[in-house]
Write a structure and sequence with these properties.
126 residues, mainly beta, three-stranded antiparallel sheet, 0% helix, globular
Amino acid sequence: MIKVHYKNTLLGIKIDSIDNGSNPITEDGEFIQAVTLKHPSGTYLKAHKHVPTKRVTQKLQECLVVVKGKVKLDLYDLNDNLVKRLILYKGQAYISINSGIGVHMIKDSEIIEIKNGPFIEDKVLI
């Protein structure tokens, strides 16, 4: 896991490997809550559910999971300045915390995008 910073701001988190066990990736206060799970055969994670609880979301965060291919991410600060570039390969993920993002398909790619909801058309192009 690599935390990507620009100045003193956490732009996002690149997940390039998964450690053994159940490990939180994002801080408790983030809008996307991500945990990695890596357990041996025969492990049982207890069944559970989440009771309805009112949650207020002030910003959108998203996670890109590369299922196939290779992509380059352009990461922008909150003032729309291009500040970093990252490469993601099959099996890697990026959680956008405080950044704008552009995605270049370097190879034919399949990506799963996950974000907090509900969906609202609020996209602004940089």
